[in-house]
Amino acid sequence: MTSRAMDYFYFFAGYFRSRPFHNSPELQSFVRETIFKRGIKTFFETGTYRGDTLRWVTKQDIRLRCLSVESKRLYYQLAALRFRNEAVIFGESDKVLPKVLPYLAEPVLFWLDAHCGSVSPYPLKAELDAIKRSTKRCLIIVDDYNDPEIAKDVEKPDTVLGWERDGRAHMVAVMDWMGA
Ligand SMILES: C[S@@+](CC[C@H](N)C(=O)[O-])C[C@H]1O[C@@H](n2cnc3c(N)ncnc32)[C@H](O)[C@@H]1O
């Protein structure tokens, strides 16, 4: 199978095997609670892929404005078919974020997950810098915090949530910038 055919295969297989937030019940309930307890107005994801997480979040609270940015054109096009077009933005997260941040209603919940398929350097540091500059009140969840390449130069989080699945440890960092 060509890599493009593989991309299509994995994308459509996801319709039957959705994995929002890595299918982690711990992370899903943390996000659900955060949305309601913190009165989150906007959910912003970097790295849409199939849109599994985006779809799950849109179902938690219909008042929530949900946006996601994807840099791979094929994934963007397929995901855009799945959602209202304006929910998925095409582009590199570190370039898109500074442009859209001023227009996001706060508080914002960020899910920074633009990793796999990313060209080095990973965009995480630039994403966090852009969010910090915007001074938006937000709570940030960073995926794969235990990957030293991804989390390189990233500041110490307020909380780290971890779990194990398929024999692999997953960790997310939570940065609480609500007081900023
Ligand atoms: C782990 S997948 C995202 C999964 C999705 N967030 C979820 O939870 O269902 C990572 C995605 O990030 C995308 N990506 C990588 N680098 C990116 C960047 N700089 N900007 C936007 N998207 C990027 C990849 O193409 C891939 O689709």
Give the helices and strands, then pairings.
Elements: H1 3-13, H2 25-37, E1 42-46, H3 52-60, E2 65-70, H4 73-82, E3 88-90, H5 93-100, E4 108-112, H6 124-134, E5 138-142, E6 159-165, E7 168-177
Parallel strand pairs: 1-2, 1-4, 2-3, 4-5
Antiparallel strand pairs: 5-7, 6-7
Helix pairs in contact: 5-6
Description of the structure:
- This protein has 180 residues and is an alpha/beta fold.
- The chain is 34% helix and 23% strand.
- The chain is built from six helices and seven strands, in the order H-H-E-H-E-H-E-H-E-H-E-E-E.
- The protein has a seven-stranded mixed β-sheet with strand order 3-2-1-4-5-7-6, sandwiched between helices.
- Helix 4 links the parallel strand 2 (65-70) and strand 3.
- Bound molecules: S-adenosylmethionine.
- S-adenosylmethionine binds at residues 45-47, 49, 52-53, 69-72, 75, 92-93, 113-118, 123.
Summarize the structure.
With 180 residues, the chain is an alpha/beta fold. It has helices spanning 3-13, 25-37, 52-60, 73-82, 93-100, 124-134, and strands at residues 42-46, 65-70, 88-90, 108-112, 138-142, 159-165, 168-177.
